[in-house]
């Protein structure tokens, strides 16, 4: 019996942003902040925000359809849908099941995965296992968020950082030596206290009191997350590169989680990488959490920045604390 694992590649990508852009100048009217402070400390100039009728699954569905079209794969061919999100439409059913219905992927299993901003990278690695072992042929991985719905718009320390959006990738078998060459995932639960939403789960179910005390919003210790991010981005990228048998000089394109330009610059510096090879779109879209890496990847692929044969490194970090990275030999 043949026991060899199959190579797994990205067959197509897609993304979706809400229509409404919220600029830093708009935020100046909402909290005590300034466009200059936000640009200087984060690099963000605007973010997209979903309207009241748009939920995470709506953005996820559009991104999924674009990825399927790009991959030339039909919804019926999908074996599995993974939606990485910390802002599901609701606790039950999974947002992945809603997407499955919306796109008519009647042969696909579906589940949500929560690893905050690292969710898409976790999802890719999970999908890779199913395809590599031969259990599944085609898996759709989506990172989708509407963080705007869980932000405290009176807290200038968090509300300026995030945006809404969705990104997706269809994964399937590819030729040997191409596709995902290596991956890593990690977690440090001790750091969970630095980025969390206290109420709305089983620890603190929703009540009139929890709503009054604004406990359903994202709470963050920005400087602790910042220190962690700077340390882990370079470390995770080096680890996957080594695993893949490549070095920093071999990277054609780095697609990092878009949290803060200072974090990205410091990771690039640690890796001694030319910033020209790093994809940055946080000025326009801000931090879209689990959607961040796939939106950036889709942009880079569609604009022709990533070409067949390129060595692409994706790296991200997030609440949990969690982190993930992978090295992909672009097969498309
Ligand atoms: N506008 C104006 N001033 C502000 C703002 C604001 N929006 N936010 C904070 N300040 C003030 C602070 O109150 C402080 O004032 P003080 O000195 O009078 O006390 C001063 O600016 C400096 O505050 P710091 O928190 O030290 O600012 P810092 O340079 O660290 O930037 C930031 C804060 C942008 C939040 C940064 O720490 C950061 O980006 N951290 C990482 C956050 C992150 O990436 N989170 C996402 C994780 S991914 C996920 O899973 C969702």
Quick overview of this protein structure:
By secondary structure, the chain is of the alpha/beta class.
Written description of the protein model:
The protein has two domains: 8-177, Peroxisomal Thiolase, Chain A, domain 1 (3-Layer(aba) Sandwich), CATH 3.40.47; 180-329, Thiolase/Chalcone synthase (Peroxisomal Thiolase, Chain A, domain 1), CATH 3.40.47. It is 33% helix and 23% strand. It is built from eleven helices and 13 strands. It has helices at 24-28, 35-42, 56-71, 95-103, 119-132, 156-159, 208-212, 222-244, 261-270, 282-285, 292-302; strands at residues 8-16, 20-23, 46-49, 80-84, 109-113, 139-146, 164-173, 179-187, 195-196, 219-220, 253-256, 311-318, 322-329. The chain has a five-stranded mixed sheet with strand order 1-7-6-4-5, sandwiched between helices. A four-stranded mixed sheet has the order 8-13-12-11, sandwiched between helices. The longest helix is centred in the last third of the chain and has 23 residues, at 222-244. The two termini are 30 Å apart. The site of acetyl coenzyme *A (ACO) has 23 residues, from helix 2, helix 6 and helix 8.
Shape: globular
Uncertain ranges: none
Number of domains: 2
Sheet with most strands: 5 strands, mixed
Total DSSP helices: 11
Based on CA atoms alone, the radius of gyration comes out at: 19 Å
CATH superfamily of the largest domain: Thiolase/Chalcone synthase
CATH architecture of the largest domain: 3-Layer(aba) Sandwich
**What's the CATH class of the largest domain, please?**
Alpha Beta
Strand arrangement within the widest β-sheet reads: 1-7-6-4-5
Q: What is the overall pLDDT average? A: 97
Helix/sheet category: alpha/beta
Helix amount: 25-40%
Strand content: 15-25%
The multimeric state of the shown protein is: single chain
Would you report the number of β strands?
13
Q: H/E order of the elements?
A: EEHHEHEHEHEHEEEHEHEHHHEE
Kindly report how far apart the N and C termini lie: 30 Å
Indicate the CATH topology of the largest domain: Peroxisomal Thiolase, Chain A, domain 1
What ligand species are in this complex? acetyl coenzyme *A
